[in-house]
Structure prediction request, 484 residues.
Amino acid sequence: MTDRSHSPYRPARRGKGRKGSGAKGPAAAAAPTTPKDPARRVAYDVLRAVQERDAYANLLLPAMLRERGVTGRDAALATELTYGALRRQGTYDAILDACVDRSLASVDSEVLPVLRLGAHQLLNTKIPPHAAVSATIDLARRVIGHHRSRFANAVLRKVSVRDLDEWTAVVAPDRATDPVGHLAVLHSHPRWIVEALAAALGEAPGSADLERLLAAHNERPRVTLVAKPGRASVADLVAGGAVEGRYSPYAAYLTEGDPAAVREVRQRRAAVQDEASQLVALALTRVPVEGTDTRWLDMCAGPGGKAALLAGIAGQRDARLLAAEVQPARAGLVAGAVERSVRDAGRAVVADSTRPAWRDGSFDRVLVDAPCTGLGALRRRPESRWRRTDGTAAELAPVQRDLLERALDATRPGGVVAYVTCSPHLPETGEMVASVLADRSDAAVVRAADHLPEVPDVAAGDHVQFWPHRHGTDAMFLALLRKL
Prediction:
C-alpha cells in the first residue's frame, strides 16, 4: 500500500546579499544560491527520511528533486545514490560493521546515511575512491558536523582498501555451511526473505534460480507505461519514443527520460504501470461468464492503476466499474485515474470492502488486489525489504482472507474473482486461496495461465506467478475463482 509520509527536509537556504551586488538597502530580497552538491544532499535527506519516518523513496525522491530544482546529471546521480544505497544496504552494513570499532547499531542515525552513501560510491560506482571519500565527507561536515565527519572519514577510508568482491568474501558467511546467510549478505536481503523466496520458487536456498531472483531485485527496473484503453494506444507511445511491450497489448517500455515528459502521460491518457499488473487485471476480463457482464468491482483500488485499465476495458464493453478504496486520499487518486474512461465507465467511492455497502451477488467480475508484504516489488521499493519482518504476512493474513471471502460473496453465481498480490510469499498466495476455498463449497479455481497465453513459464499450478528474473516484471501472483 502506498506510503503518504511527509519528508523531513528543510527548504534550500538562500544566500545573503553582498556589497556591490546591486541590492538597494537592507530590505532588498536576497538572491537564491544553489546548494553545494545538491545530488548528494538530496540522496542523504531521502535516506534519512526512509530510515527515520518510513518514507517511501519512490514518492519522496521525485518530489524532493522537483522542489529543489535538481535536474539533469545531478538528478540522475541523486537517483543512483539513493536507490543504490537502499538496494545494497544489507551488504554495505555488513562491510561497515567490520570497519567501525563498535557495533554499527550504536552509530548515530544521522551518520548512517552518510556511511551508506559513501560505501555505495566506493564499492558500486565508477567514482574514483579519493573523489567519493572527499565528496562524502564534505557533505558530512554540512549535515552532521565537523566532529562526526572525522569518524565517517576514518570508516570510509577503511572501506576503500578493498573492492566489493573482496569485502563480501570477508564478511559473508560461508556458502557451504550457511547458504541463506551467504546470499543474504551477497545480495542484500534479510534472511527471512531469502528463505521465503526460496520456498516460493520451490528451490533449495543455494539454487542458481534463487540467486538470479535476488540479483534481479538489485537491478534498476525498466519504466513500463500503460496506454489506457480507448484513450491512447501503444502506437501513440511508440511514436513518442517508447518501445512496444513484450506481453501486454497495452504496454510500452520507456527506454530513457522522465515519464512525466511523455505527452500521453501528461494528458492522463497513459500512466506508469508494471506489465504484470496490467496482465493480472487483463486476465480477469478474459474469463468467459454466462449471462450479464455489466457490473465490475475493484475492491482495493488505490492508487488506481488496475482500476484505470479495467474501467477502460469495461467502457468498451458497455460495462461499469465500481472502484472502492477505504482511504479517502487514495480514493481521490483512484478517481483521478479512472476519470474520462470510455463512456465514463469508472466510478470511485470511499468504502471498506471488508464491510461492503453493496448486496451479495451484485457483480459479474471482482478484483481483489489485496494489501500484502510487497515482496514482489523489491526492485521498485528496495526499502520495503528492510521495514518488513517475518511477522508481517501473519499480521496481514486476516485482512487478505476477509477480502477474498467478501469478494466471493459479492460475486453472482457464474461470475469471476481475481485474487492478486504483489508478493510471491506462499502464505499470501496459494496457501491463502486454498485456506479460503477449504471452508467454502460455492467457488472453484479457474486455471489462470489459460487466460494469459502470451506469457511463457508463468503457471504456478492452477495459479499464475510472475518473476522479475524470468519475465522482467514485478512478482505478481494471480488466482482466478468462479462463483458456483
